[in-house]
Every structure is written in structure tokens, then in C-alpha cells.
């Protein structure tokens, strides 16, 4: 299994970043606009059908939201990979900024290249969108 990690610090308040991350059905408008171009909710609030800018689409099932730890976990359902589980977490930096940590475990190992490349693009889109939230505004 390959473990992929993207991490960045953004000049935005942790509460604002968490509010955007935990909005599972708005990934295309709040968290990663431009990278994710569509998101439709299925089965209530548990599964989202995500369309990426490159035309690829997946179904992602929400595994859990931990409000206290500011952590969200999801898994890809029926994708090309045999296993794809990811989590993202919002951590407060001492200076008031936010550290965003995104970790994905994937099988087979060979899927790490393409998924890692997509994660790099996604992290760049998220950093840009989250920086626009501003450093000290509250939700």
C-alpha cells in the first residue's frame, strides 16, 4: 500500500478552514474550486459524486467527521484502485494560521503516481481557495 501526503500552511483562521473542509457536499465551491468542477450528493449526506477538471469522476463515501480534532475521512467507492482511503485535518499554527494535512492510502502501489499527481493539483487549488478566506475572520 502507498501512503501519499500533502501538507501546506495557509493564512486563514482554522475555524474558517474547518468550516470549508467539513462541508462535504461543497468541495467544488468551497474547498477546491477549479480542481473539482462538480459535486452531487447521493444517499443523503453520505456519498458524493465528484467530477474533476480533467474529466475523471469518483464516488466518495464519508467515513467520519471529528469536530474536536477537525478531521474528515472518506473512501472512494467503486473506483479504479482496489483501496483508496483518505483523511484531511485542520491544525492550528501558533501564529493563528492553519496547517492543512491530507493523507491518502491507496492500493495497488502503482496507483500512487497518478493519485499523487492529482493530490498535488488538489492541494494547490485548496491552498488558493482557503487563503482567500482571510486570517482572522470567524465563520
Give keywords.
Alpha-D-Glucose-1,6-Bisphosphate, Chain A, domain 4, 139 residues, 7 strands, alpha+beta, 7-stranded antiparallel sheet, 42% strand, single chain
Tell me what the structure shows.
With 139 residues, the protein is of the alpha+beta class. The chain has one domain: 2-Layer Sandwich (Alpha-D-Glucose-1,6-Bisphosphate, Chain A, domain 4). Helix content is 24%, strand content 42%. The protein contains three helices and seven strands. The chain has helices spanning 14-22, 27-31, 112-131, and strands at 2-10, 36-42, 47-52, 57-66, 71-77, 83-92, 98-107. Strands 1-7-6-5-4-3-2 form a seven-stranded antiparallel sheet. Strand 3 and strand 4 (57-66) form a beta hairpin. The longest helix is centred in the C-terminal third of the chain and has 20 residues, at 112-131.
Summarize the structure.
This protein is α+β, with helices and mostly antiparallel strands and 139 residues long.
- Count helical runs: 3
> What is the radius of gyration computed over CA atoms, rounded to a whole number of angstroms?
14 Å
- Number of E strands: 7
* Helix vs. strand class: alpha+beta
What is the approximate shape?
A: globular
Tell me the count of domains: 1
Oligomer: single chain
Mean pLDDT: 94
Give the topology string: H per helix, E per strand: EHHEEEEEEH
Largest sheet: 7 strands, antiparallel
- N- to C-terminal separation? 38 Å
Strand content: 35-45%
CATH topology-level name: Alpha-D-Glucose-1,6-Bisphosphate, Chain A, domain 4
Q: Percent of residues in helical segments?
A: 10-25%
What CATH architecture label applies? 2-Layer Sandwich
CATH superfamily: START domain
**Class in CATH?**
Alpha Beta
Low-confidence stretches: none
Amino acid at each position: 500500500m502507498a501512503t501519499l501526503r500533502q501538507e501546506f500552511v495557509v493564512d486563514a483562521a482554522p475555524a474558517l478552514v474547518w468550516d470549508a473542509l467539513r462541508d462535504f457536499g461543497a468541495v467544488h465551491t468551497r474547498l477546491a474550486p477549479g480542481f473539482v468542477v462538480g459535486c452531487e450528493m447521493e444517499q443523503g449526506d453520505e456519498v458524493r459524486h465528484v467530477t474533476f477538471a480533467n474529466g475523471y469522476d469518483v464516488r466518495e463515501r464519508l467515513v467520519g467527521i471529528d469536530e474536536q480534532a477537525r478531521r474528515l475521512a472518506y473512501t472512494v467507492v467503486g473506483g479504479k484502485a482496489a483501496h483508496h482511503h483518505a483523511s484531511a485535518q485542520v491544525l492550528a499554527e501558533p501564529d493563528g494560521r492553519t496547517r492543512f494535512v491530507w493523507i491518502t492510502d491507496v492500493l495497488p502501489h502503482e496507483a500512487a503516481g497518478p493519485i499523487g499527481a492529482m493530490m498535488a493539483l488538489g492541494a494547490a487549488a485548496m491552498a488558493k481557495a482557503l487563503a482567500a478566506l482571510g486570517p482572522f475572520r470567524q465563520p
